[in-house]
Design goal:
The protein has one domain (about 5-25, about 45-125, about 135-185). The protein is about 70% helix and about 0% strand. The chain has helices at about 5-15, 20-30, 50-75, 80-105, 115-125, 140-155, 165-175, 180-185. The chain is globular. The two termini are about 25 Å apart.
Length: about 190
């Protein structure tokens, strides 16, 4: 998961601190990712903590994989791959923000632990097109996830105006087979 020198130099010339941020992210992943989770006895009354950890670790791995794909796209000068990877990274960020929102609602007493478990189950196991898996929970719509990031940005950092959603929609336009999607390939 490394960038070619010429790509790295081009990025540094426009965004001087981005390479440092990438290195901070790499260090965070290295220090935080647990390759094999092992439940520790005794059996807890609630699995919310354990299930939350599994969800967070799965998203940490997913993020790492998406960033690797993004770097591959940059190294191969493939703008469609880079756009798809960033869009999927936005969706992953949305899933984490949605979970954080539900966790904060639990802490403030707005919702119960069972409701958080149900939402976590939908986040991790939800399926839109169930086919034969009729008992699977319904997934949470991606725009709900995206809006959770804007909710976080507004409440935590005072950033309003649905900026995350607008950026996501622009990425989606490029990913779709329409004029913007074709324009990026020329």
């Amino acid at each position: 998961m490394y960038l070619k020198k010429n790509i790295k130099d081009n990025i540094k010339s426009v965004y001087p601190n981005v390479i440092d941020l990438i290195n901070v992210w790499r260090k965070f992943h290295h220090n935080s990712y647990i390759k094999q989770l092992t439940p520790v006895p005794p059996r807890p009354n609630s699995f919310l903590g354990q299930n939350s950890l599994v969800f967070l670790q799965a998203n940490l791995y997913r993020s790492h994989t998406l960033v690797s794909g993004f770097f591959d796209g940059l190294n191969k000068s493939n703008p469609l791959t880079t756009t798809l990877m960033i869009r999927a990274f936005f969706e992953t960020t949305g899933a984490l923000a949605y979970f954080l929102k539900k966790y904060n609602q639990l802490k403030s007493g707005m919702i119960s632990e069972e409701q958080v478990e149900s939402e976590l189950r939908r986040l991790y196991l939800g399926i839109r097109d169930k086919g034969e898996l009729t008992d699977a929970p319904d997934s949470i719509g991606v725009m709900t996830l995206i809006d959770a990031v804007d909710h976080y940005l507004k409440n935590r950092h005072g950033v309003g105006g649905e900026k995350f959603r607008k950026n996501y929609e622009e990425l989606s336009e490029i990913c779709h087979p329409n004029s913007f999607g074709y324009l990026i390939l020329t």
